[in-house]
Amino acid sequence: MRRRGLDFRRPVRKRFPNVVWWTVCGILVLVLIVVLSREGQIESKPTISRKPYRRDRIMEGVTVTDEMLSSNSVTRQLTDQISLAKAFVVIAKESNNLQFAWELSAQIRNSQALLSNAATRRTPLTVGESETAIRDMALLLYQAQQLHYDSATMLMRLRAKIQTLEEQMRSANEKSSKYGQIAAEEVPKSLYCLGVRLTTEWFGNPNLQKKHRERKQMDAKLKDNSMYHFCIFSDNILASSVVVNSTALNSKNPDKIVFHLVTDEINYAAMKAWFTVNSFRGVTVEVQKFEDFKWLNASYVPVLKQLQDSETQSYYFSGHNDDGRTPIKFRNPKYLSMLNHLRFYIPEVYPALKKVVFLDDDIVVQKDLSGLFSIDLNGNVNGAVETCMETFHRYHKYLNYSHPLIRAHFDPDACGWAFGMNVFDLVEWRKRNVTGIYHYWQERNVDRTLWKLGTLPPGLLTFYGLTEALDPSWHVLGLGYTNVDPQLIEKGAVLHFNGNSKPWLKIGIEKYKPLWEKYVDYSHPLLQQCNFH
């Protein structure tokens, strides 16, 4: 093979002299030394500032310190032992091993004292001073494991304990509900005393009866539709008085207000005596008893017919036919009381009237209510405040939607509303035969399969599609069982103490009682004699 000529050979690369290489290497070493020295200065700065920072954390009371976060920290080890020992103390007590529980508790206190002393002097625990405590606690924890106080046993026992506590809580809730219901249904001695004294006064004072008759004969307002007509159905004298008094005191024209009060035979004389003796800024008060309504009989009224049924009587009055499975509140006979169901017969009670505002006896009036009578109900029968801001107050909460009749006729998500302050157009009521609708549904609930209790569920069925929503400020609910927004209370025209905690009972909610009590004249001689305070 022929070699190329010298002219065609690759040129040889020139090499740098050794002096140049050494110079470059020296420069690089110097640069590296400068960089490392600067990093050392940067790292040393946090070390200087770390001590005061940590001191600040301790001084501020922060319990999580650096030594506790360290995996080798004796403080952390002691803390973990204490947590585990506390769990073992509980199990030892449940196992009736009181001696061992006492030994664990004593060692826990010993370890806590060490931690407390270290925190006080603001220095970490040393291995030397904590070694004995850690060793003693470790021996006790080992002994606990030998006694089968291990994790599996703990879990089983804790689950059993939780189940027991849940059963106890369920039992306590049932008792609380039962006793609360009993307390709510009991008539206070002072209220009973008032009724007795007023009845005695009525029958022993002919002048009082004469005054009542004269007032009744002179009152042409009872059927005058230009007046503001309110109706109350109640057997509670003082509560009815508060409704009338609070309405009168907050009215711009009290002389135009007419109250139609219906009670029962027992309280009839006392009611007449109270509202004859007392005046309420010119407000007219009519008192009747439902026993005088001749049309109110078992052949017309389903509730009265149901009261004659032996099974219904057993359900409400004996309480022994279902082994106590039904809560006591569902078995309250008041739900069959005519004073409760009379709200569905208002056109029959007041045949001459065209518009009425229905008020429960557990309300207080704070504003002038004359504006209710000028509200356009748009052809509806019932004006009420809706309560469906939450799902709790929709139809499916009150009615049994497993029943085909309910499922076929009513939307489960329809908005509920409240009894207690309702505007009723009696002209539309009569035209649409609303009482007949109520009878239809009441007769189909003899076996209590459509709804369980109360007058609201049949009201929701009766006035379905016939209710006009009112501004919520007209009727504020919940003062008898829950906390209510103070702003709502301030703006509310009518405050409703619905629930068991009525303001005239000892179980009433204390912070709401003054709203009701300010309309009670505790200086009244009869109230003082009956120990009202």
From TrEMBL:
SUPFAM superfamilies: Nucleotide-diphospho-sugar transferases
Pathway terms, separated by semicolons: Glycan metabolism; pectin biosynthesis
Bilayer topology: Single-pass type II membrane protein
Family matches, as InterPro entries: GAUT, Glyco_trans_8, Nucleotide-diphossugar_trans
Transmembrane segment boundaries: 20-37
One GO MF term: polygalacturonate 4-alpha-galacturonosyltransferase activity
GO cellular component, one term: Golgi membrane
GO biological-process terms attached to the record: cell wall organization; pectin biosynthetic process
Entry's localization field: Golgi apparatus membrane
Main location: Golgi
Pfam families reported for this sequence: GAUT_1, Glyco_transf_8
Class of enzymatic activity (EC top level): transferase
Keyword annotations from UniProtKB, A to Z: Cell wall biogenesis/degradation, Glycosyltransferase, Golgi apparatus, Membrane, Transferase, Transmembrane, Transmembrane helix
EC number(s) stated in the UniProt entry for this protein: 2.4.1.-
Top-level lineage group: Eukaryota
Protein family membership: Belongs to the glycosyltransferase 8 family.
Protein name: Hexosyltransferase
Organism phylogeny: Eukaryota, Viridiplantae, Streptophyta, Embryophyta, Tracheophyta
